[in-house]
Design brief:
With 270 residues, the protein is an alpha/beta fold. Helix 6 (220-228) links the parallel strand 8 (210-213) and strand 9 (233-238). It starts with a strand and ends in a 6-residue tail after the last strand. 31% of the residues lie in helices and 24% in strands.
């Protein structure tokens, strides 16, 4: 059983290191996706019934991932117009879809395409959607599953890279995990929390140390440090009173305001 974990391109090695710690004893291999940048392939040595436990662990503990997919099927396809027929047949042959989509389960296809093809991502979404509806209808007395592109119950990813097509069940929904939910003040140059954690990892931050962010903006780095490390002191400085007020609001929202020292401070005068 394989999971595909997405992240920001360029930090795949850091994600692999973190996943190896979190999934110790649960997986046989973790490596960069051979085709897509910003993706990591996790081969689990578990039964499919344990997938929920693994996903819950990653959602709760992983700090640098965006989405989690379950790989359902994969095959070679043509790059010309015949590739649409190949995609249709591949989706239609993926019977595992029936474990997740019933006649009254709304679904959406999320297509991604990399390479030169005689068809578009919209074409992929259309034929894949038709295949899912036919698959469900044949098992349930002609009743096809309804499409809902805005708020589907289930999302199926169809990814085409050159001559390879993979069918994935998107386990984390349409919202990326980098959206932590605590950000009530949005700094104009806000850093993604996933990248903030990558920076903390590259800086080799250790529990018990002091962390200073002299130009903290909305406070993403200090807040992520307070959430995931046990530091002796976290200092959050910025020259802008507005940004410091915003950083305080974000820290209150994340429930870590008591772990961070905030100050309006010119970094040139430290």
């Amino acid at each position: 059983m394989k999971l595909i974990v997405t992240t920001n391109p360029g930090i795949e090695d850091l994600v692999i290191e973190e996943l190896e710690c979190l999934l110790k004893g649960c997986c046989s291999s973790i490596k960069p996706h051979p085709k897509f940048r910003g993706r990591v392939v996790v081969e689990l040595s578990l039964d499919e019934k344990d997938i929920n436990r693994v996903v819950e662990l990653l959602v709760d503990k992983a700090t640098m991932i965006n989405k989690i997919f379950l790989l359902l099927n994969e095959a070679k396809i043509s790059k010309d117009r015949r590739g649409l027929e190949d995609i249709y047949e591949l989706v239609y042959s993926t019977k595992k879809i029936l474990q997740y989509i019933l006649p009254y389960t709304t679904f959406a296809i999320r297509a991604e395409r990399v390479g030169s093809h005689e068809f578009t991502s919209l074409d992929i979404g259309r034929v894949a959607g038709d295949a899912v509806r036919k698959l469900v209808a044949e098992l349930h007395k002609g009743i096809p599953a309804p499409v809902n592109l805005d708020y589907p119950n289930v999302e199926i990813g169809v990814d085409v890279y050159e001559d390879t097509c993979s069918i994935n069940l998107i386990l984390t929904g349409d919202t990326s995990l980098h959206r932590r939910g605590y950000r009530v003040y949005d700094h104009p140059g806000a850093l993604k929390p996933t990248l903030a954690n990558a920076m903390l990892k590259l800086a080799k931050v250790r529990n018990g140390e002091v962390l200073l962010d002299p130009m903290c903006g909305g406070g993403t780095i200090p807040i992520e440090a307070a959430l995931h490390y046990n530091l002796s002191c976290i200092k959050c400085y910025d020259i802008s009173p507005k940004h410091i007020r915003g950083a305080i609001l974000n820290a209150i929202s994340a429930n870590v305001e008591d772990k961070i020292e905030f100050r309006v401070q010119d970094a040139r005068k430290l």
